[in-house]
Each structure stands twice: as structure tokens, then as C-alpha cells.
Design a protein that fits this description.
Number of strands: 9
Distance between the termini: 23 Å
Low-confidence stretches: 118-126
CATH class of the largest domain: Alpha Beta
Mean pLDDT: 84
Number of domains: 2
Helix content: 25-40%
CATH architecture of the largest domain: 3-Layer(aba) Sandwich
Largest sheet: 9 strands, mixed
Order of helices and strands: EHEHEHEHHEHEHEEHE
Oligomer: single chain
């Protein structure tokens, strides 16, 4: 993992995800790209304009400038800590720009915060981070964005569980876990989806096979729904 992209939205849970980005960048000696995607607000032209329309544009520009400054400040902080860091600020639709950044930086890993779906609307609309994890061309480390997670930021990974599925082969599991086992000096513990427990390990690994079929359940979604800690999502290698 020589190139790691860390996507941040500067919310209150971002520092916890940043701790994981720090940890992985240090363990693998990777270049860490700090990515922020600013999604411009589209004004509702059907509403009457009561004030100078230029005020909204100025506010938008201020938000852009502030997010750019925060990104550069974060880069300076991490550089001072000895990490190799670069920044990437983009404007556009969040998922689309993250996908472009992964390609532009030839990312070997994306680290991103995800927010649990607490309401019916959240579950209906879906979580952008989870959608990115499903479609990304590289592994994605999803960090939970709940308050409890913020209080358990890692100093080191002590245990890793790999969730085996019917489609998983030993060769595939070895390919996905060998670098992690070497980097953190750990033996990987293999469990089935049925054996998976949300708090049993510091890090959970699962492969998203994206099974098709009207009544087919995706085991990766089951793990993501139950997991209370970080989940590293791999994708099967496409046959050429």
C-alpha cells in the first residue's frame, strides 16, 4: 500500500478516521493524500429572492476557501509528524470526485468515515461511504462515525478478523491479508459470517462479491450493518 487516499469532510468524527489514516500510512510507509470534496449548493430558483443574490455566492466562496485552508493546515500538521502528505481539494458530486481521485492517485487504499443509518430516511437514501466501498476499484477502509468510536482511536491494531464466505478461496484470502499480517505482526483470525461478532476484533476484513439475484443477500452488507468498528472492504479480482 504505497498510496493511501484519506477522504475527510471535516465533521466532528473525522479525527478518529484520521487516526486510522495516520496508523496505516506509518505502518506501510505510504504517501497519504488528503482529499476533500466540496459539493456546491444548488440554489432553488423557484423561490423568491429577498436579498442580494450575490450574498449566497460570497458565502459559498467563503466555505470553499475555509475548506481549502483546513486541508492545507492538516497537511502541514501531518508533515510535521513525519508523514509524506499531499492534498487534493475538489468540487463536485462527492462519490464521483472520490472515484476520480482514486484513479488519479493510483490509490491502493481509500480511508473514509461512514455514518450509521439511524433513521428510515437514512436507510432509504443510503450512506455515500458505503456506496463508495461497493464501487471503488481499490480496497476501502470504512471507519464508523459514532461517538463511541471516537473514544477508542487506535494506537495499534491488536486483532484482525477475516470474514470467510462461500466464494472465498484460500489464495484470495492470503493475497488480501499477507501485507496486513506482515505490517502489524499479527495472525489473522478467520470466521464465517454467522460467527462474526461486532466487537471481537480491532479490524474486520470482508470481500464484497456483490452477488446478484432478487432474493440474494450480500454478506458484506450484513457485516457492514453489524460492525461497530472499522471494516476493510476488498473486491474480488476480475478475471481477464
Amino acid at each position: 500500500m504505497r498510496n493511501i487516499v484519506f477522504a475527510t469532510d471535516f465533521t466532528e468524527t473525522s479525527p478518529y478516521a484520521l487516526d486510522w489514516a495516520r496508523l496505516f500510512a506509518r505502518q506501510f510507509g505510504a504517501t497519504l493524500t488528503l482529499l476533500h470534496v466540496y459539493q456546491p449548493m444548488v440554489p432553488d430558483t423557484t423561490l423568491p429572492v429577498l436579498n442580494d443574490p450575490g450574498e449566497g455566492l460570497t458565502a459559498s466562496q467563503d466555505i470553499e476557501r475555509l475548506s481549502q485552508q483546513r486541508l492545507e493546515q492538516l497537511a502541514a500538521q501531518l508533515t510535521a509528524e513525519g508523514l509524506v502528505v499531499q492534498t487534493d481539494w475538489r468540487a463536485g458530486e462527492v462519490k464521483d470526485e472520490i472515484m476520480k481521485a482514486i484513479a488519479d492517485h493510483t490509490a491502493h487504499l481509500l480511508i473514509i468515515s461512514r455514518h450509521q443509518a439511524d433513521t428510515f430516511f437514512d436507510r432509504l437514501a443510503g450512506d455515500k461511504a458505503t456506496a463508495v466501498a461497493h464501487d471503488a476499484p481499490c480496497p476501502v477502509l470504512l471507519i464508523p462515525g459514532d461517538e463511541d468510536a471516537v473514544r477508542t482511536a487506535p494506537q495499534q491494531i491488536r486483532s484482525i478478523n477475516y470474514v470467510m464466505q462461500q466464494a472465498t478461496t484460500q489464495a484470495e484470502a492470503s493475497r488480501q491479508t499477507s501485507d496486513l499480517a506482515d505490517a502489524f505482526g499479527l495472525a489473522i483470525h478467520f470466521v464465517t459470517v454467522e460467527q462474526f461478532e461486532p466487537k471481537a476484533a480491532d479490524l474486520v476484513i470482508v470481500t464484497d462479491y456483490r452477488p446478484t439475484g432478487l432474493f440474494t443477500t450480500n454478506p458484506a452488507d450484513t457485516v457492514l450493518r453489524k460492525a461497530e468498528g472499522p471494516v476493510l472492504v476488498f473486491h474480488p479480482v476480475k478475471e481477464s
